[in-house]
Amino acid sequence: MSALFFVGSYTIEMGHIPDPRGAGITAHVLDLTTGSVRQIGNAPASITGENPTYICHTDVNTLCSVSEVVEGEVKALNYKVDENLTECSFRLINALSTKGADPCHLVSQKFGDSKMLYCANYSGGNVSVISMNKDNSLGELVQDLKTADPMNPVNIQRQEKSHPHQCVLYKNDYLLVPNLGVDRIQIYPLQADGKVLPEISSSCTVCSPGDGPRHMILHQSLPIAYFIQELSSKVVVCSIELAETGLSFTKIQEISTLPDDFKGENITAAIRLDNAGKFLYGSNRGHNSLAVFSIDQATGALTFVSHVPTQDAPRDFAIAPTGKMLVVANQNSHTLVTYNVNGDGTLTQVNEIFCGSPVAVLFAQ
């Protein structure tokens, strides 16, 4: 039994990427019994644009990717895989400017007969709202959401301006944007067609100054959200409330992703739930590990389980559809490493392959 997945990468040098070795977007097949991985195709930068770091599905056999450069773009791609999972080919559908520098995350969502794409531009400080056509091509930039820069940042090097880092949909009702630069989770109500209304004035401030929220994830069945703070190496657990004034979060717990005795530098990256919602994982770049937590099934609170060693800079990871295997993208080690997911949430390493400057891992729908 096998599973198809895709990896985004850095293809050209940036300030924090001195040794880019990426091949664009690569397609891989994971053997769900042995954990072995083989590459079966790639979309080079001539198709994807440089630095196609983050990717998302927009439909069956269709992806969208960012081009994380100063003149940021998103690209719509079609892919085709043979029935034996031995070859994957890619075709560019079209491209569109994000009107923001260094797009770093994107997500698509259907609204009735229409579909929207939301893209966070890290250095541009804006979120792009893009319509999609019925043939899965990119339509037009419908809205350009800008955020004021922070007034008195704690971390002057990293929080000198607004840095939206992710776009998450709460049902079809709200767009949620963790903003590393302003220590805030921005909450935008959505219209029925997916267009964005003004940010809620009491936008989520569950972050402490200098936390630098990077990514978040919503629990599958509990009214709970988990936020991973890049700069403070914490996970914040919040309850979700809906009232007449709109959606809000209330902090119920924060817990470190690091051992108590760790003294080095660290920034976090990805956050994921296992398929059953019983365990949460967060990646540490510096400590180079995945922090594993169990989840209280009544309250959503976290209990630390273990640290799983990784290679250098585990930028992203994803759990296979079966829930029994996990793939980690180690950006600076240029590897993909596979792990068995054990019943107690712990991980056992089983295999690894070379993959240049991997950033994002996405299993096929």
What can you see in these coordinates?
With 365 residues, this protein is an all-beta fold. 1% of the residues lie in helices and 53% in strands. Strand 8 (103-111) and strand 9 (114-121) form a beta hairpin. The chain has 1 helix and 27 strands. It has a 4-stranded antiparallel β-sheet. The chain is globular and about 50 Å long.
Q: What structural class is derived from the secondary structure elements?
A: mainly beta
The count of strands amounts to 27
| Main sheet record | 4 strands, antiparallel
- Shape estimate: globular
Short key terms for the protein model shown above:
365 residues, mainly beta, 4-stranded antiparallel β-sheet, 1 helix
Secondary structure blueprint with pairings:
Blueprint: E1 2-9, E2 25-31, E3 37-43, H1 45-48, E4 55-59, E5 62-67, E6 73-81, E7 88-97, E8 103-111, E9 114-121, E10 126-132, E11 138-146, E12 168-170, E13 174-179, E14 184-189, E15 213-218, E16 224-229, E17 234-243, E18 246-256, E19 267-273, E20 279-285, E21 289-295, E22 302-309, E23 314-319, E24 325-330, E25 335-341, E26 347-354, E27 358-363
Antiparallel strand pairs: 1-2, 1-27, 2-3, 4-5, 5-6, 6-7, 8-9, 9-10, 10-11, 12-13, 13-14, 15-16, 16-17, 17-18, 19-20, 20-21, 21-22, 23-24, 24-25, 25-26
Q: Brief description of this entry?
A:
The mean pLDDT is 96. 1% of the residues lie in helices and 53% in strands. The chain contains one helix and 27 strands.
